[in-house]
Amino acid sequence: MEKNEKSNQTVKLIFGVSIPIFIMGLVSFFTDVSSEMIQSILPFFILELGGTGLILGLIIGLTTAISNILKGVSGWMSDRINKRKPFIVAGYSISNLSKPFMAFSPSWEYILGLKATDRFGKGLRTSSRDTLISYYATKKGRAFGMHRAMDTLGAVVGSLLAFMFLFFAWTYSQIIFFSIIPGFFAIILIFTIKDVNPNEIGEKLGVQEVEPKLEKLDRNFIKLIIILGVIEFASLDIAFLQIRAGDFVDLIYFIPIFYMLSNIVYAIFSPLTGTLSDKIGRKKVINIGLFILLISCILLAIPVNISMISFILILIIFLMYGYYLASVDPISRAYIADLAGKRKRGRAYGYYYLSVGLISMTESIIFGLIYDFFSYTWAFIYVSILLIICIIVFSITDFSKILQKKK
Fold first, then answer.
1. Residue 11 phi, psi dihedral angles, 5° rounding
2. Between 136 and 166, where is the model more confident?
3. Where are the alpha helices (DSSP H) in 82-169?
4. Is 92:28 a contact under the CB 8 Å cutoff?
5. Average pLDDT over residues 194-222
6. Residues 6+ positions from 360 with CB-CB distance below 8 Å
7. 270-300 in b/e burial notation, b at 16+ Cβ within 10 A?
8. Helix (H, G, I), strand (E, B) or coil at 18
9. Quick one: three-class SS letters along 71-93?
10. pLDDT at 286
11. 211 pLDDT exceeds 50?
12. 3-state SS class at 243
């Protein structure tokens, strides 16, 4: 428990976060057990069905765009009606009930359709969920870090299950359909979360927060959102890292283990980087993560022969990728919460995800094209150049004007 001296109210905490945030973390845990059980093997399933690097990029690009654009719309709608739970419940339900049926796909086109449905659900829920987390949070960096850690622990369990099922000779289809079981647990848990009114949440949590005078999202704030979106454009999707890992090891069973270890690093460092960003600032932590990804992409561009050295190298790259995610993903969301204000957070998250969707729509497709028609070396050099540009722009841009002085 934690007591706020000014309001004289006691807030019940679990692992440093409020109970609703912990429950939402459990929902994300079970959802990610389901999702990452699939993601651990999905790129290889797509290739088995006749897909290529370009097809993989097309599926990633289109479904990510659908998800992020809908996040923008749903964020605006949640602010408009001042309700978040309906979007969260519907989003988790659609995702967890649709994606297991990818198991019966006869071709990559069916996977595209079902993956789009899954991402539709993700887009519907994410802005509202992040807004609700920010309302319930006593310390936003810690809250988002802990939530992402629990989310990622689910990914660890999911990828470990995928490895075990592969070891016991399950087919890709059997593994994918089994994911429906943890999905049901997530759907049940999400109904226990209570919606809140942002005008009342401060009193309930004992948090006295002065609302910034930010009636409109000004151009400086929009600049931040766009730059964070560009960072997403310069990112590397895990599916391409998985495919590239096949050039470093000769046994596919190891790749879900690498994926699992990456998520373990993510789970461990998400709350730590979140707390660190509360102390030293969001920008510094994000820049460290981008620099780690840059080093990873440079290493992935180098041709290798399968050996013990290549095995160790790809393992290190997966670990670095996990740290990159922990340094950028939750911190970007906390950054938005810092700068938007309680009554505009749904809209702010909406604009952020809309920006990500529009800016990154072609990134995976371009990467897949370069991967297929030139080489993996040029594909990773392309991402490395984008990352260098992003690091420079993000470092020299001053967002201090966005933070309004408290009266």
1. -110, 125
2. 166
3. 85-98, 108-136, 140-167
4. no
5. 55
6. 61, 64, 65, 68, 229, 232, 233, 235
7. bbebbbbbbeeebbebbbbbbebbbebbeeb
8. strand
9. HHHHHHHHHHHCCCHHHHHHHHH
10. 82
11. no
12. helix
As a whole number of angstroms, the distance between CA 325 and CA 294 comes to: 12
What is the DSSP-derived secondary structure letter of residue 1?
-
Three-class SS state of 10? strand
In 3-state terms, what secondary structure has residue 3?
A: strand
Angle ∠(153,86,157) on CA atoms, nearest 5: 15
Q: Give the type of residue at 41.
A: I
- Percent over 70 (pLDDT), the chain: 75
Which stretch, 228-237, 275-284, 320-329, has highest mean pLDDT?
320-329
Domains of the chain, by residue range, sit at 15-195+214-401
The pLDDT of residue 2 is 47
Q: What is the spatial distance between Cα 173 and Cα 175, in angstroms, rounded to a whole number?
A: 5
- Residue in this structure with the two tokens 């460092």, named with its chain if needed: 269
In this predicted structure, the answer to whether residue 137 has a pLDDT above a threshold of 70 is: no
Question: CA angle, corner 131, sides to 37 and 11, nearest 5?
Answer: 100
Count H helices and E strands in the chain, helices first: 17, 4
Q: Choose the CATH number for 15-195+214-401 among 3.40.190.10, 1.20.1250.20, 3.30.420.280, 3.40.1010.10.
A: 1.20.1250.20
Average pLDDT over the chain reads 78
DSSP symbols for 181-210 = HHHHHHHHHHTTPPP--HHHHHHHHT---P
Report pLDDT digits (tens) over 68-127. 778 767 777 777 777 778 888 888 999 999 999 999 988 889 999 999 999 899 888 887
Residue 117: predicted pLDDT: 92
The mean-pLDDT minimum among 47-51, 196-200, 210-214, 342-346 falls in: 210-214
Is the CB of residue 196 less than 8 Å from the CB of residue 129? Answer: no
What whole-number distance in Å separates Cα of residue 84 and Cα of residue 53? 37
